[in-house]
Amino acid sequence: FTEQNKERLSEILNPLKEKISDFEKKVEETNKESIKGHASLREQLQMLKDMNQQITQEAKNLTEALKGQSKTQGNWGEFILESILEKSGLVKGREYVVQESLITESGKRFQPDVIIKLPENKSIVIDSKVSLVGYEKFVSSEDEHEKQLGLREHINSIRSHIKNLSGKNYQNLYQLESLDFVLMFMPIEPAFALAVQNDQTIFNDAFEMNIVIVSPSTLLATLRTISSIWRQENQNRNALEIARQAGSLYDKFVNFYNDLIDVGKKMDSAKDSYESAMKKIHDGRGNLISGVEKIKELGAKASKNLPPAAINRADIDSDTNSPDN
What is the pTM of this model? Predict the structure, then answer.
């Protein structure tokens, strides 16, 4: 190639090289963001796994202590529920309340374990139900017949909880704009799985009574979703507030601009009045400066003198020194 051909070829290839380089940079940046996103997801999944293992282990350790003591079981279930709420990203007292007393129209008092608040004044009720007696028999018994009795007792206990919870009609309390269902929380993941695996209709039967059974993992996933909804809602509210304030600022600017226009008009009017007054002082035959200077020339006693520039202007503009004056 000649030098001229090389230059032309460079002119063609250099932009292509730049575009390829830019493309490589964008691909690299995209890969970095993707890696960060995957790392964050892995952390969330690992945290969920660790928490689930921790809760399951705690449940096993406490089974013997809780067995047969309904009040203690209930307190323990509420404790597990609150620990999940603390990890959900929701803020207590703002996005959820605990043990709030509600009164029906007939005067009957109810106290749900937790009320989750949603945007647009909606809410979801969570009630913790612990069933350990039958489950413990199933887990600890070595006799197959005893295991099956324990399993049946476990499932019957859960169905009893579903029926009792459905009868409270939390979703219809007039003080709440609740969704059409209540979350029944089972704090022991294996106990939840055991019931669903061995009674395949229990979940649907509960749903028909406006009850959704949740375990620690499914509840945490639900609460995390609600937390994301709240973040989006707050961002939308902030955007609306920014738009409102921007509109208000614009309106104030328009008013300020109009005020400046009025000030300008008044300044122009004042300037016109000033120029009219100055013309009376300097311009035309018989102007004020010519008049007062004549009085001084006639012998009026004065301790001060007008500036020479003013006298010269009056002399030039009005020709006050002419014989006619």
Answer: 0.56
